[in-house]
User: Fold these one by one.
Assistant:
Number 1:
Amino acid sequence: MSGQKLTVTYCDEYGVWPLIADDLSARLPLRNLKWQPSSQRAECIISTLEVDLKRFTVDHTPQPLSTTQTTYLNLYFVTCDLADTEAKRTNNYLGLKSSVFDKIRTDFNPPKQDRCAYIRKKDADGPQSETWNVFIEKMKEAILSSFDMQVLQIQEDTRRLDMQRHMPGWNYCSFFILKEGLAQAFEIMTLYEDALIQYDELEASFFQVLKDKALAWFGHFGGTDVGDDCGNILDFKRKNYRDMINKNIISVFDFRSYLFARQCRMLLKLQRVVEVTARAQFFITGFIPSIQENKEHLPDNFVESWVFSACMNVVNECEPLSTQLLGNNADLVAPYNAVKADLLLTARRQLDKIGIKCNHLPMTDPFSIYINHADKPRQEESEKTITNQKLLEAMGSVEAFDKTYMGLSTRAIKSYDASFRSRAALNVHGDIAALKYIRGKYEEAVRIYESIIWRYGEHEWSSIENSLLIKCADSQCRLGRSNQYVESLLALLKNASFLSPENAIHYTDEMISNVEKLDSEIKRPFSPIFSIAVTSIIDDVNTVDGASVEICIMNNLPKTFRYDTISLRLVGNDPEQIWFSIHNQDLAPGKNNFLLTSETSTSGNYAVEMCEMKLGKLIFSHNFLRPGQKKKVVRLNHDMKQLYSTLSQPNEICLGERQKFSVKIESRSVVSQSGTLSLESQSEGMTIPRVEKVSSVLTVEGSEPKEMLLDMLDTGEIVLPDLEPENVLEIFVIYEGSYTEFDYRVKTTISYKSNNDVDRKFISSDFVRVTVPLIVTESTIFRETCVFLKVELSCNGELPVRILGSYSKPSTYYLVDSQSEMKQCDLILFPKQAVSFIYKLVKRQEESIDNAILHTAELILSVDKDLLVSEACPCTLRIKQSTYWSQDDASVTAEHEFYYDIEVDYENWLLSGKRRLRFISKPGEVMEFPINLVPLKTGNLLLPLVRISAVSPEIFASTVYVNSAQQILVKPKSRTAIFFVEQQQRFVQTPTAQPYTSNALPTVVENGRSSASIRGV
């Protein structure tokens, strides 16, 4: 009965209906009905109300209000001619207006109500007819009035019956029928929310009855009818449920199914599809225990079939409506798909249980997770069987089972992805991979496992990760994929605490035995299989042969294995990194201490960066410098027993030659063979040029030092001779750069083969202080017949210098005519002190100096008196080229181009004339150039300096300036001036006797103003 429209009957004894049927139907459904409940509830708006118009029959006679009805209005149509007659034998009907319409209203209308209306046949006003509007409004009022009366009556009856709950003879089924009548009344009026409230209250009252164990009105649990295991739980018409309730013969199974179906119908009417699926999940899982308690009367696999069918029924029923709703509201996509996926997965889990019972699946995870192992199997098989055809096909064929299993799993994954529940989707992926694994489809299983396992590792779901890894590793082993197999074994051993001791030993053995089969390197972190710590640095020669690093490794594996190499990398400045290592040792379970040594000898502070442990192509590493970890810095010193080198300035320094470093190499207790020395400048401005040979001195204990020339390769490396223990080799390496006083940083690298043919290195980066104890400054003064050489020595540094002697040797072009000879002096120069030596040099007669030209310049003043400031003084610049320094006779007539340059101090002089001028001269020629000098200051002023230079850079030109350091006295100009100063008083005052007299200035008064004048003569 539920689901019908509201019924309105009409009685047409006079043929009126055919004339108005179309007009009335066109105004249906009724819209915007406003119901004001008599129970003081808020006003309810019924936006649309469908009406089913039916001709009145005896069957539509009003029934008692306690029974559900759908007829809320009866219409009676009359014509004007018959209105008076019919009015005498009818009541409670609406009619047509006639001349006696007022009498009809009087006879039929109850107090304060107007239940009569009139309409016109073929009304000319059409849809906007006022009479029809009034008629429709009276229909609404009459329907709402009848509905309100019914609601009040049922509510009162229900309240009264509920109060009798604890009285003898009270019947829950009668209470249900009565209260459901109210729910259906709300449903007919499209008040689905109110109807749902009634069903929810009925459910709550049922659970109270269930709690009180008052189920006498239910004959048995039920579920034994054919099709109960696969019936649509949303179909409330599948059985005559209401009739069974009325007769008190309904089972608990049928009652729960009917009540849930009615609730879901209301929710679907309200288009709350998400709530439908959520309630379905709760109802299905909540009803399973009740079915389990009564399964002895049910067919085998009844629970699995009912749950499977119920879940699929709900999903399939909601799918069409959800498609429409989700298209209009994207916010519903995630919640709907989440509940839908749970329903699909619940249905799929029933396949797990059935598959195990039918031997389609093994009794292992993940298929056995939801098997209740406490359930006791039936002693006798039931004669009844389930009726779900899809499950029957799956039970009869592995192929059909797998097809159904994959279909449900795939749909669940798709819905989980749409709801952004990635973890739930991962679980289903794992189920599919497990199915592929047991079917021997290892390629597909591995592909799925490898795509999902790492996500469990990210979330530290170690136990779940291990269960997947075991199958994944076995599949990879069967496929012969050694690299992937070892990677899976490592992932298992990472979670060794979740493995049994036997499995941990087995997988450790498998890892060790398969390492040698690896095709490429596999790198993994130490943690959590291993942990490592750097304990200390040991460089005591009495304890170890060389500097060693002690490390402690914790092995969390249950077995001892042998590794190839453990290497520890330290990082610093020079060298940037250094490796310490140990080879071919056993790593036992628990703590292990090892001493790592290095083939490189160096010193400095180094940070521990990384450790690697190699087992074939399997590499474990640990980064000590990762973010958040405290940096560990250690101090390294050179190995005292290994080859050692120092860099310094040589004991002998020859100024004027290319400077050298002294590299001293001590072999100490080792034998050095095939060695090379490399020096690398780490300072700007200093380079080490390549030369063919490098001088050195080899000192062997008990013999004289031996000088040697060593070869330098194209790479700049110096080839070292073989050294025996306790040999010392000093090498002198030329460098280019400033050598007055500077600190150079030089990196020294020595590569060699030591005892037992082991390749070793010595690396050191040191500062070499280069200093010259004396600073030598030379200056030459050319004269027409000689050259004076001035050599000035000054102490450079903080230590005094003792001068033992000084002398000059003749050269190719010069002879030493005289000198400051100090061959046996004992002169001490202290810091900031200096001493000068003068040498007079003359030209050898048989030699001439190439391109050396000397000019004599003299500035001649034309006045003999002292100069006055600001007065110009005419001068003549006289220039003469000397013939003494000419190369030969032919050069006497040679002409060259020169220019003079007068260096004027403009604070003292002004120059009028050519300050710089180009001219051509030849030996012996005298040239004069006029200029004017204007002194700007008084006192003794130095005459401006004159220099003569050659235009051609190939000619060395020198100047003898006659007026060098000559001073000229400049006097000020003198003048005489006489000044008269007068002062006048501003006001005329009465002369009074002065107490004394003085030589005051004369004053005059003009027009009352005072004035003063100063006159200069």
Number 2:
Amino acid sequence: MASNPVDPLQTLQAALSAPPNSQEQADLLATLRESLENHPAPIPILSQTLINVVVNSGDSLLKRWVLDLFHFAICRSSLTLEQRTQMALNALDTLAQLIDDPKPATVKVVIQCLATVYPLVFRHLCTNRSNPAIWNTLSACKSRIIELVWAPNVNVGVRLSALKFVQRVILVQTRGVSDPRLQNKNDPNISFCPVDHPFIPVANLEAEGQKLLDTLARILYTSQDVDLLSALLNSWVNLVKQRPSTYPFLVTTLRSWTPAALANLPASSVKSVEKAVRILLVHLSRLPSSTQYLGQINETLGLQGLRMDKAAAEEKKRRAAGAESRKRPSSSSNEPVDNKRIKLETETPQNTSAAFLSAFDFTSLPAPLITNLIVANLEAFSEPQLIAMVNTYRQSRGLTPAQPPAAPEAAVAPKAHPVTAAAPTAATVISPTPAIPTGPRKQVYSVETSLTPTPQPPVPAVKAEPIDPLQMDIDEDELEYEPEKLNEELSGAPEPENDLMAVGASHDMADLQLVEFKLPPPKELSEEERTSLVSTSITRIWDGAEELRAMGEGISPESAQAGGNSASEMWMLLLVRMITRVAEPPPDLNIDDPMDEHKELVEQDFYVRQDQLRQTLCDYIMADFPSRVRLATTWMNEEWYNDQIRLANDRNWRPNYEAWLNQIVASYQTVLDGKDKTFARFLLDLPSIPADVLDLLRDLCVDSSSPDRMQVGFTTLRGLVTQRPSLRMDALNVLLELTTHHEKRVRGAAINTVKLWVPNVQPMDGMVRDFALQMLRKLQLRSSESRTKPQADVKMNGVDNEEEAEANADIPKEKPEEAHREENGQREEGQDMEDGQLPAEDLVHTPYLPERIELPAKKAQVLQHVELLFALSVKVPEFLDEIFAAYGQMDITVQEAIQDLITALIRSLGSSHGKLLTLMRQCPPGAESLALRVLTIFTEHGRPSSQLVALVKALINERDLDARFLIPIIAEMDKSDILRYLPRIVSSLNGQAEPKNLVRSVFSSIVTTPPQTFGSVTSNLPRVRQSELLTPAELMVLLHESEKEIGLKSAIEAIGICFSMTDVFRSEILAVVMQQIMDEPVLPVLFLRTVIQAVTTYKSLVGFVSTTLLSRLITKKIWTNPPLWEGFIRCAKAIAPASFGALLQLPKDQLRELVDKQPSLKSGLRDYVTKKAPSKARGAGFLDIFGEPEENNASLATPQPAEAPATLA
């Protein structure tokens, strides 16, 4: 098979098509298993499908095969560590549900699988911090399995598997090698997990591991289970090898151990445990770390050897004494033998049995068993044999007078002779009568036999040798059992003195036939006597059944005997029926006369008497409810059945079931213990659960001050849902309503309870889903409500706010009367429902939420509505569709709360979640802001994934997204995409602080020099491709070149942001920017504004601008562009007098225009020309433009009208 592997898919399909549990299916599965063991590669693929087959299915061949295959795959196969880890993650929820499977064999395999799953998942979660749900499920499994180690009545195999699981937990939660370089990835331990892990409490786990180790040590000292102790000691071998830090603890534990707890066990069992301890000590002594403890170990081994030798000697002595006691009766064969023992040699088997029975200690057997043996042995003999043996025994002990010599012959005579009244020894003649003659009846029997003589068959003489009663055949018809009379006969009671009177009385009773005998009617008792009689009967049953109760308490409630087959259950049933069914209501209660006072008194007396008896029984049960829970269950079932049959015959009967059930529940709920499953089991076994008890369970669940009471409440409700179909709806409704409770602790416990049934447990799965969706729909607005306008800054169609306002202006406003009518909900039916909504009357309402959410919405109240749905969305991603679809129909305050509350869910799903990416790509109308929030969550603490970047880029190409969608991913784009989409981001600037901060963060992420606020708003982690970033000069040039696309106002604000980043846009950068822009054929409108801002910020740039930049602008004939010419003039004035040399290069007409627009420059230019003119002729020409000082003064005194300068944005 290994060389010719079968096709796993075809073989599996054939097995699934075969008849379930048939030999054909078994052969196909065996063939597939053999192939997969040799070629395990297809197992991970098959396991994803097969693991769901075992959920909620009964015991079957396929289920066992799947679990065994999964156990092989993760424990013993050659699959890689990553493959086994992924299989463990996929199967974790299924394994968690199978822990409570009713088949012990299934639970055993599941626990063995989880022993390997626990370290695999732990190692995975140490590096994956975004999925706390997996850790919560794993922790729940761990707690449940640890409980099985100490729980009573657990299958031995399950308990041993749970013990091995605990050992694996201790290994994981104990520190190994702390050096990461030396850590073995196949041996995960608490050292793998960082101390700041968000949901794995490292310190708590380490403390729990030590506590579990201490608990196992206590088991070694207290348990009497030899198998459990052997498994425990064997598990410590692996522990001390992998965790040397536990070596001192184990040595100390073993040194102090003695078999004191095993005192009542057989010597072979004690010896087995001693050997296991000795083997472990020898193994410890051979380890490298045993040097400093070697002396202590050798001392312990020496003491143990002496102890074992002493125990062996005592056992040998005890066996010798037992053998001697068994041989002792045979020594009597050397003594003189009586005539009646002449055939002793030929009856060796009976002699051997008698010797064995004489040496047996019957006190070691329970009293009920001894009673049954006595009755069975008495029934094993016929009446003549029993009478003969009794007489023989009495004669051997000298208890009766010696018999006349004729008696032995009469015993062997072929026929009996008539007996007279003077012959009291006639009892020695054996006659087949229906009763054993004892005491006074002996004489009566003798007279009867004499009056009606009948021929007697010959009876052989009874031998005096001992007879083994266990070897006799039992015939129930051979003996009328009268134990009291037999006891009188065996005890040798004296004969009555007046035999003649007894004989005379027997003449009158000669013809009495016992078969037709009827008891006389019972004596009439008063009410007090009746009450006293019943009370004493109850007390006698309680006091006389201690041994029965002791035997019954050892029976598991799930066993067959717990249903009424055991002796303990029988007295329970007797006691309960005495109280519930014996009393009949007085006949007066059947008279339908409401005015009859006598009837009321009779009824009151009757019920008071019955309530007193029931109260007595209730007080007894509540005194020790855990050990008497079966009595309480029996009582309640009888009360319920009694009420049913009474009400069928008497409609005036007052039911007792609910009243006394409520009293039991109310009494016990004050002393509940979270670890005690008694209360839950009691309620699960009841025939009916009243509404009052469900309300009590609800109260227990909401009692957050007592974790034990909460645990009992939720455990009981969960059991009612899963095990009681008739109560499933009511119990599940309570749990679902608690998922909307205002206290987080209660709400979280309810959500954890109901989400276990999603998605594979029906019908609970559908009910939980429907409830979660209805809670979501309660947050939606109906069209009749006045809805706040959605966020206008997040849109999909690119319409500006101004355009929206213009479009909305054309929409006619509704009339005030119509609006008032809508606010009061007076619209016609069906007119206020949108797609996916239900009418208000069809929505589910809970006592913890208002019928309609109050606006403006509070985040805590919104969380009550959606927390269950968010928790289910991790398991059922299809719920994300419902969330996005309903989001657009919510009030804006609800939307804001949803954006905040959904953060944890989105982080747990991760940025590579397929359903989320699909929803973002196909975002429904109105959910744009939610999609943007999801994108922001993905990128606020890390770089976006390549899938996310590709998705947003595709959306940008397909749909006109809001610019804010680009902000989180712009830093991950190529340079060409950055240059393409950056202007759209900058165009979102509108003078407000939030957009300004976002744009600043974008600039910080796309330039080569990161700012000090690294990663404060969005991700700016070091990029792999540094060349894909923009240089500061490229960014500034891009802003100028895209000023029309961006808008002048937004461009000016963006340039101002650049100037504020002084550590990036330094003076040399700005010089490069100005030089590059100067090389462009067409200068941007904002260029000279930027130049003025540069020289104002950095004075060191004045020289460069005055000597180089202005001259190049003159050569470009800057005056031909009015806005730039205006900027040139203002720049010249800003850097004057450094700009005078360049200004003199202007043509005279432009120079004259410049000084006319800026008269303040004339005097400076005139002085500059006067001092530095190369020739007087050239200087005179400039002086004509600048004028004389007087003219200048006059011109200043008389303002001239000037042309309006071009507006420089």
Number 3:
Amino acid sequence: PLPSHGSLSTGGVPCGRLPCPTASYRNWRWPVKTTQVTMEDYPGLYCIVHQGTLVSASASLAQEKHEEVGRLDAGTMVEVVEVLRLPEDQKRVRAKLLEPQGWISLVDLGDTYRWAQRVQLEPEGNRLRSPKAVGNRSVAANALASRKTVDLDEDYARLGKMSLTSSDENLQPPGPSLKDVFEQKHERSLPMLLYIVLLLPIFGGVSLLQLVVWSGMGFGAEALDLLDEGYDYKMFPLALVTVTVLILYLLDFFWPPHLTRQHLVLWDGGKSAGRVIIVILFALVLLAGFLRAKDTPSLPMMFTMLLTPAGMVVVYKATRRYEPLDACESERIFKGKDVGLKMKLLKNIVGEEEDFKRFCIAVFVSFAVVFAIVLILWVIWAFVSERGLEGVDDPSLTAEGRDRIYMLWVTPLAVAICNFVFALFALVRIYMQRGYSETDEVRQKLVAEGLKMTQDVLDHRVKIARSKSMDAVEKELTLRSHYVKESAKHMKQLSMAIRAVGCVFMLTLGVLYAGVQLFYADSGIANMVMMLLGIFFFIFVGLVFVSLKRVVLAMGQWISELPIWKSVIGVKDSPAVRAMILICFLPLAVVIMPLSIVNQGVRRLRGIYSESMEPTDSTRTDASGDQSEMMFHMVKAGQQDFCLTPRVRVGLRKVVAWDWLPIIHWIYILAAVYLCYSICPLLLNVVLSYLGDIFEALDFPIILVLTFIVGIVAFLLPPVPGMTVYIFGGLIVSDACPESMGGFWAGAVINIALCWFLKLAACAVQQKFIGEMLGGSLWVRQTVGVHKTAIRCIESILRRPGLSVGKAAILCGGPDWPTSVLAGVLHLSLFQCELGTIPIIGFVAPCALTGSFYLRQNISSVWQRSANLMIVVSVMVNMILWGLAAWAIQGELEQRGDELTLPLAKNVDLEWLEYRTKQLKAATHFSWEDVSCVVRIIYLMGAILEVVVVQLLYWFSSTLFGSFAVDDKISCLKWYGTLEEEVPGEVCVVFTPSAAAVLVLYFLSFPMYLVYSVWRMARLRLPLQKASEELKKTEASWKTEFIRSAKEAREVFLQNHPSKTPSKTTSIIESKAIGEMPTVTEMATWETSPE
């Protein structure tokens, strides 16, 4: 039953008001006498107000139900082209529709009940009351006719002046109009001045606290002395935190399995207690940091600075007037038919955006004001009053004391810089606010929905007026799709902006890091700057993730769709990666297993495994349901009797289910590689030092020639990295350059040029004499994967003539020996490869300077810092080259992915070898259970010993090996001895007794691998022979079928891409009979062909 007065129970729409065109109504009739016929019905635009309005084929009321065409929902917009008043006894007005074609009832003249209500477009302030005015061109159409471009602000302003109304003055649409949304001031938002009033005392108070307590302007020296007295107790807070975290873990505080979708709680609904515990733990960590002020005097100031962003977050949360709905709720409202609710949602979204923008402006103003005040105070105190550095020239003052005075003097400047950086962060966020608002998909859809209603009205009015300005109307009709497309456009723009800002930010951090490392590496100021840089970095990342969440999610989605990323994700389940995980984290099992056993016992004592804790079906399928589902299966199966917790037990089952044979095989390989990585550089230092002693007595030109020869020989060895060769050149050439030729600096420049030429010559030797020779072997080509998409993509980039970013990044950033040899295997042009390798000078120069600067480390510590800085620069350059190479490969895949994935007939032999390898592997496959029990135990024990060796080499390398460096004299070398025997510059030990024990342990594990290898060869001999004979019978037919399928795929590709022309290779294949195999001569022709 509906009330006779007031609002309707179904939607809260006041009686006598026009329902929204897309409102949702059930089958009900308007209350009698609530809507009067106040005008003559005539053709025009109508809104259906009766749910399920019947459309019939004829105007006859008697045949209405027998000639039903369809039914219309309430809120549907229809165009009436003819109005017919039936005889007096029927008391009905009928209307003919343009679409769907048919007749509907408009109004019952007896009780004035309406099935449809006429609507019209009404410009604000100029109501069109006369029916004749309907035929005139709309104000919006006239305005659009003169527009040349589409501007969002103009669209919003125009939309705000247009509303759907009835001809009755009392009829208005429910909810706020678009004008309310985009133009009116939101009454719930706080004014910017109030935000400033709230934020300024917090920012200023924290800065004042830092100045008074931790700087020389206040009581910084006294505060640090007070903290120094508690230095001996610095470990107690950390120990208390560790014990507390361990107890909370055993009590399932962090992720309770019996409390669905709750975290950081000890009992159901205990969020407040959980927050108190987290605050206490954070306070203990802060206390531990304060007590370490003797080692790092700037640490208390850094911790205090973190109160500023924390206070900003608290103010925003406390004053937030617009609570955002989750994505599911917003999508549900949008898909509904309640336009009033949609407009309120849009108003909430826009209000939240405006409120956040005002908040960001207030944050920027507050930080800028505090920055200016603190900087002025520091300048007056430090330079005008010349205070803060009293006693720094005291000869009795220690280096630590002098460093503390400087640190207290510069602390106010650090506080000002922090406020300045935070203000810049806020300014960047303000700049991105408008574009970020346009990335809200729900917002754009709601705007488009409002445009759709306006477009329906305009479409009807123009049809009646027969206006000649159809171009303007067509432009208006494209606005809806325009607004929807704006979201993706702004998302892309913001993604690029974030990348640009991030790159500039990281470059700035890198410059600051370089400067600090160069001049203040061992001072407290350096530690302060390093911590500031770290804090700025994490705050910047947090700002991007929190305030630009939609862009971050879009960028993450974009990255997840990249073929390179998919390839990386696909590798995670490979045996090599699993072997690496086991080598790195297997020792943690000694800690995880006991904790899991104790945790399981605590759960049983607490009664968590009772049947009452069994989750419902809905709980098992929610977003956090994997743990609940695990708990459900555990309870149903009675698994509470196990000694391990469900999560650890499930993870252990997954590990046990792995295919262990290839994993253990890779453990042996990776352990051998890591052993070589640990020992070879030390042995190489010995060799280079020996050569350096020989070169000392030679003339400078001879030294250059011998250095070049040694470098070429070193480059021909795959394990030797180029960086070692460049550093060796710096150690030899820079110091050997005579003063008559310019001395040290001339020698450093000559060494850079020599190393650059050495790299180019080594690339040529590796490519022509190693790569092209190996390229004649099908096994090598198949192992390298020249027929696979990744290598074909790299080949496509490298074959392109000229110098490009992608080519230079691949040739300069890739590993020295493999990259050049791969170019030879692919038979690439030597000139083009040398051209692409020219930019390697950017990597060679810092490496060569590293060796040169090490020669002068005894003169001043600046040289040592400069050498370390050059190493960092070299690593950063290499990482940048890797990133550019990955970017170029990804771009090539996106542009030519269809072509690069086509099977090539010239690779038929390689594809056959690939197929043959897979078939032999499948035919001779056996599992871990098939291995003999004795062999299995021996094989596994050897792998465990390998893991132990790697762990010892990683954690105790400084005690296993000596410190013999490349710049030490060979006369100081002592191959075996203890570290106590080392004397810097006189005695340098290479291997200690502990290192000898580790090497013995490794060589004991190697025979265990040989046992398995012998057993495997004996096991596979007969199956392998049988499978090979079977495959040999099908080789010819398989190759014929592959060539046919490659040809068909090529033809389909050319049909879909008419602009592509067949290559020379394809033409040769097409000219031969399908069943005829290519000759060796033709294969050689293909491999040397540019195509």
